[in-house]
Amino acid sequence: MKRAGAVAGALALGLALLVGGAPAEAAGAKLSATTGVGLHNVYDQAAFPYFTNSLTSGAGLVELDIWTDTFAGRKRWRVSHDNPFGNANNCTGLGATGNRNQDFGSCLDDIRLWHNATPSHQLLVVKVEMKDGFDNTAGMGPDEFDTLIAGKLGAIVYRPGELLGAYSTLDAAAVADNWPAREALAGRVIVEIIPGTFEQKNPFDTYWTDREYATHLRGLAAAGRADTAQIFPAVLGSAAGDPRTRYADATLRPWFVVFDGDALSYVQNGIDTGWYNRQHYLLVMTDAHRVEPAIDVHNPTEEQATERTRLLAGRGASFVTSDWKALPAVLSLVLPRG
Q1: How confident is the model at residue 73 (pLDDT cuts 50, 70, 90)?
Q2: What digits encode the pLDDT tens for the residues 167-215?
Q3: Which tops the pLDDT comparison, 123 or 14?
Q4: What's the mean per-residue pLDDT of the chain?
């Protein structure tokens, strides 16, 4: 009971109330027709003292980097930027109190505590970079990842099966715009995963996170168990046309409806980003500050960051991310897309 009291006190002091739903200019719109704002690497202690602080910032998307840890029989995911052997983060599992440098499960505990304290919060996308990918041979594969997320967050996760509905693939459901209204997603969390930087450079790893989870998702759907999948795998990196053609197995392609890449590359390379909007796919544009004319990565003016968000919303972004942690009015923006 002492621990519960400490948690309650920390939440009362550390969590600010966020108003659910979308602003008037995007009210009633489906998720696919809106643009939100997110933050890069919020687990960094230099960015926020506690992970909970990033959740109360108003951001519509937060990013975590995780590594598998199977040392000495352990099965957990560490959270850090470039240290595969230890946790280096601001997660505690207790909100804005307690010891930091905990594992991914504790970050999920922080999300659950924040949700319980602010159940009408706007949709939160949790973007996870799987630094070294899954390790299914050691019991740390997609099944175990689903189990962890389901156990920690439960019904607040908006799952691929909910988008799928009666459609045969996620692609068919997205093209039919089976996404719910953004307002209906108040109090919900979407988990997106991308392949990690270490995984992509590892010559011994050819089965990257995106393909591995999409294969898992396809298998669950074929077995009538799509509702157990917790995650939307994303196609990483901008490309002209349909980036899913990189997957040699064409039957995997319809299980990707989230795309993620550098905003500058989308804009300067003349890519038809309207295609994502017309198909009702979700498109995350990162490093929004780099689009010309470049603005400050951390502290642009509110006007600059707002205008950059509007620009990229017009270019079809579903989420615009940078490191604008000091601009809560911008982080909580929800704009019409396209």
Answers
A1: confident
A2: 999 999 999 999 999 999 999 999 999 999 999 999 999 999 999 999 9
A3: 123
A4: 92
Burial of 281 (0-12, 13-18, 19+ CB in 10 A): buried
48 is in which domain, residue-wise? 2-336
| Residue 17 buriedness (CB in 10 A; 0-12 / 13-18 / 19+) | exposed
Q: HSE-up of 331 (CA within 13 Å, CB side)? A: 27
92-138: pLDDT as tens digits: 999 999 999 999 999 999 999 999 999 999 999 999 999 999 999 99
Give me the number of domains the chain comprises: 1
> Does position 219 have pLDDT exceeding 70, yes or no?
yes
Residue 313: which CATH number? 3.20.20.190
